[in-house]
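Cross-check.
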Amino acid sequence: MPTNCIGHEDTRRLQRAAHHNERDLARHKPDAAHEIAPLYTHGPISAKGLTGRGNAPVRAAMLQRAQQTYGNRAVQRALRSWAAPSGSFQPVQREVSDGTDLDGPPVQVPTVHLKGKPHVVTHYGKGGLKLQGKTKATFDGGVVETKDQVTEAATGCKGCKDESCVLVKGTVAMTFTATTKVTLPSVPKKKPKLTPCQKAIVQDAIDTTLSDHEDEHVAAFEQYNGTVDEPFELTTCQKKSASAVKKLANNRLKAVEKDRRKEAKDASAALDPFNFDLDLSCEEPAPEEATQGTSGGNNASGVVDVEI
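Predicted model, tokenized:
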């Protein structure tokens, strides 16, 4: 009557074959299912008749040796590959639907380079002489990039298995630049009506006092300038990692830029209102044709309050 059991000598031969195959396997790298498969596919585990119930102890012993040598995961993958029809064996590669190779190292996330939205601010004041100095600041919105970026395997991601979970570490580097333009007024031509010497006084005030004040606005706006580096760590699914890092960098740029712009604007606004007294008392030189027989010239006097 046919039977699935084999004799004592056959068992001895299979055990010796298992020993030789195990020795051959030790020369190969562990956890490599595609290297285990060729040795065992035609070896003692798959020997004709060994799948019978009477040979369970021998089969279990050989599987245990393989697990000790290569680990449970490698043996399980090998067994799955051997279950395919003869001649159809292919190296097993673990991957998910997004194409991620789960046996290899995590795919490195590309670095980010973004620009923020520019903003323009103008501060100026008006005075009794209608003198108006103007300082215009253009804030570039900042530029951000990630540097020193590394992607590592991780666990605990929401929305994907641990095999697809990564930890992205690096630095968000932000640069901010404000450009300024100062516009100084001209001496009024009509109102108020000024004598030539008074016009000279006003022009000097524009070139000195008013110009110096606008320079203070420039310094306040330029507080916006500078660089900010912030380290970051982000745990996310591999397929979402690039967009997640980009979003993180963009959000940090917007938040930091908004604070820096507000500080610069507030510092500039605190400089106004700016008032100073301008003494317009002066003596006009006598006309040449009237110099003979005269002892003096025309006088112009007055103190005006100038608000810049």
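Residues 156 and 176 are 36 Å apart (CA to CA). The two ends are 116 Å apart (CA to CA). Passed to J.P. for a second look.
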